[in-house]
Amino acid sequence: MPAATRAVHLLSANKTNPLSWWLAGISLAVTASLTSNVFILIAICTGSLLTIRLCRDDSPWAQSIGFYIKLAAIVVALRVLFRIIFNLGTSTKDAFLLLPSIDLNLGFGNSLRLFGPVSQEAFSFALVDGFRLAAIILAIGMANSLANPRKLLKSTPGALYEIATAISIAINLAPQLIASLGRVRRARSLRGQSKGIKAMAGIVIPVLEDTIDQSMGLAASMSARGFGRKGNRTYLQTIGARLLAFVAICLIITGSALLLFSPQNQGFPLTLLVVGIITAALSVKLSSARATITRYRKEPWRLGDLVLLVAALILVSLAFSGVFAR
Amino acid sequence: MIELKDLTFSYLKSDGSKVSETPQLNNVNLSIGAGEFVLVCGPTGSGKSTFLKALNGLAPSFTGGVITGELKINGVNYIGSEPHEFASLVGFVNQQPENAFVGDTVIDEIVYCAEQLGLPIDQIRTSVENISEILEISDLLERPLATLSGGQQQRVAIGSALVAGQKILLLDEPTSALDLDGAAEVLRILKKLSAEQAVTVLLAEHRISRVIAEVDSVLVVHGDGSVTKGAPATQFNDSRFAPPIIELGLKLGWKPLPVSVSDASLMWNKSNTSFEQKTFFEPKAEVLKIENLEVSFGAVQAIRPISFSLFGNQITALMGENGSGKTTLCWALQGSGTKTKGSVTSFKGDTAELGSNERLEVLTMVPQRAADLLFLPTLSAELEESDRFANVQSGSTAKLFRDLAGRIDTSIHPRDLSAGQQLSLVLAIQLVKQAKIVVLDEPTRGLDYSAKHALANQLNSIRSEDRSVLIATHDIEFVAMVSDRVLVLEQGSLIIDDSPLEVLGFGKPFASQLAEITQEPGLISLEQVKL
User: Residue B182: CB partners within 8 Å, gap ≥ 6?
Assistant: First the structure.
């Protein structure tokens, strides 16, 4: 299948801008949150997994997918289990799972009823809800596995550089935690197995310490190479950018609040929102204007990115237009 | 270039008042010239790292503590400045480059500092060209960092530290994780930088025997707060960290002390000193039988089929380059590592099939990252837990630890120990267990010479109990001191299984420094030299 091979080649992790993978992942997650159609949810889950399988490289963050799969499975199981345990009033008529109920007297209000008959509808509702969460987790997992957090840094505007650095270190943390968990568990068995809390502490403490040590080491190395230097921005520029940012935040918050609470009049809040976003962009532009950081090589946008972005855009507009809703 | 006046650095206690003990650095006064190549050494945990970090603001910024006095670089006092304010003047390289990398490819990593300092693109381009030529990494620029060897990674880290034209380079044990070739490669580059580019190099190291002949001066951080600096031969009256070449000179009363192999060679020939034949111990009962052991990770064959046995009353060294499979083999022997084919048979059966506590009766191991084994909040809690688990008399682990690392306040957190002290602690915890076999993966990293002697004594007493020791290491001098047998791995195959004389002797693949100096067949370690 030369066409498929070419597509994979086009989209492989090291050939695409990490930003487009995050946009694709977020739009999949948004789509999942807007739909109750179980087929679409399952399609998103398998689609994300398949994309990772085909497009990933052998970088450490690409190895974290096992973790996301486990997390997604646990979430689905927990969601269904909670529905069965905290079972709120189903009549026995259309029960699908007949469990004896337990009444707990809490000493105040009504007694709490656990278990009891579960209707098929309630069960499938919980299952769909679980799948929705799983789809969101896997979509974000896909972005995290395919987007190289270090490359992500290079695509951010200068003004957001420090925030982006914090985020990219945080994203880096998950695969690092997983790697050191494996190592410490193996090393821990060399000490001999103590029981109870101690065994738990024997794993958790070295892993956390190791992760914090590594992050501190990275931060120290970045700092020693000039990261965090305040540039030669003038006082006026700094104040201007901050003022604009403040105004932008106020406009965006007011706009979205009005949009959510008074749905009948949408013109005014939408205007506020758009003006707010423009102000925010201006603020970022102003802060980046005298960027103190050189970009030796910019991360280019390629054909693969265009494909991803168009796909994401189509997906989200379809989701908002209600095509996927059942 | 660098001038220190009354530089004092102390850590703070949590209540905000100064520590009552002597500060880490106390009234340090010294100066370092442009292009000077300085070796920074001192006993385990004396504060070499802290000293280096104080020179570019990482201490106290990333370590906590207070710094006072004067720190002048080119005449400007930088005391109390943040690390990034030093970035255009001072480059810093740490022990494990892979933990400090921010880029993906070599070029990303090298330009990072220049980008942060906002240098113009043209200037960065010429600078990258120059520096990559000096460091001999021009043809590596587009390679992903993860595919480089340790020595190459360390050279990239040096490039990244000097790309903005920094004339001062601080290196915190840059070769401790490297094999012999990798270490030699880094050392040669440093020598070149100081001689040809007038870069002032401050190099903190433990394995100093091969460094000492190359440097202009030696700076000693004594551990009591004092720091001294002088010509290499004058700084080693404290034999806790004197390398074998100096120890030989001290033992035979040579004056002046030789620091290079050729000088020492001349003096040896004149001195007519005799030496004893090295005694090796006769192996006793077989304790571990390895048959056709094979380890693969996916398509990569880390260990090709190998067979050998470990015996009681024998210390076996396992040597080989980085990536030759030493660590993989250690874990496969221990039983919890990957094992694709073959068997590792102990008196309790195949180690892979034992439970973890059963395994500990057969074999105890100290892995490369020793700190992974520590999890309790205080040193004393760790020592007590170890006594309890090993079912030995209370205080046994503490005594062993004291032998290895000296007297240390046991109320402190194990994370506050230096890397060498942490290793000593884990060694004590693991050696106190009465397992038949002891496997140590790089057990001398960060240990000073006195700690190495203490470890050697401990291993000798383990051997005398008819137990077996396997040490995976790059440390030739240590192998010469303790081993009865040497195995050498190359790309996963066992290529040598022989007496230490055949591996470490003069003209052999891993000739020890003493063998090189004396050129005597049969002489590899200092203990053999008679007065």
Answer: B149, B150, B151, B154, B175, B322
Number of CB atoms found within 10 A of residue A285's CB: 14
Task: Check whether residue A197 and residue A129 sit in a common domain.
Answer: no
CATH code: domain of residue B54: 3.40.50.300
Task: Mark whether B10 and B119 lie in a shared domain.
Answer: yes
- Closest-CA residue of A relative to B367 is A187
Distance (Å) from the alpha carbon of A217 to chain B's nearest alpha carbon: 6
The pLDDT tens digits of the residues spanning B14-32 come to: 555 555 556 889 999 999 9
User: Is the entire prediction scored with pTM above 0.90?
Assistant: no
Q: What is the pLDDT of residues B487-525, one digit of tens each?
A: 999 999 999 999 999 999 999 989 999 999 999 989 999
Please check whether residue B419 touches A, CB under 8 A: no
Express as a percent the part of chain A with pLDDT over 90. Answer: 7
Tell me whether 0.90 is exceeded by the ipTM.
no
Which residues in chain A have Cβ-Cβ distances shorter than 8 Å to B91?
A: 224-225
> How many CB atoms sit inside 10 A of residue B77's CB?
13
The boundaries of the domain holding residue B68 are 2-234
Mean pLDDT, range B64-89, rounded to an integer = 92
Is there a domain that residue B120 lies in?
A: yes
pLDDT digits (tens, 9 = 90+) for A134-143: 999 999 989 8
pLDDT digit string, tens, across residues B406-418: 888 888 888 888 8
| Number of continuous H segments (helices) and E segments (strands) in chain B | 19, 20
Query: In this structure, is residue B344 part of a structural domain?
Result: yes
Q: Under an 8 A CB cutoff, do B84 and A216 touch?
A: no
**Using an 8 Å Cβ cutoff, are B303 and B294 in contact?**
yes
Residues in chain B closer than 8 A to A214 (CB atoms): 99
Residue A181 is assigned to a structural domain of this protein: yes
Q: What is the dihedral of CA A165, A170, A171, A175, to 10 degrees?
A: 130
Domain's final residue, options A207, A225, A243: A225
For residue B118, give the nearest of A194, A214, A292 by CB distance: A292
Q: Are residues B189 and B290 in the same domain?
A: no
- In which domain, by residue range, is A33 found? 7-155+301-326
Do residues A87 and A175 both lie within one domain?
no
Nearest residue to B427 (alpha-carbon basis) of B365, B334, B363, B335: B365
Report if residue B512 sits inside a domain. Answer: no
Is B123 domain-assigned? yes
Q: How confident is the model at residue B293 (pLDDT cuts 50, 70, 90)?
A: very high
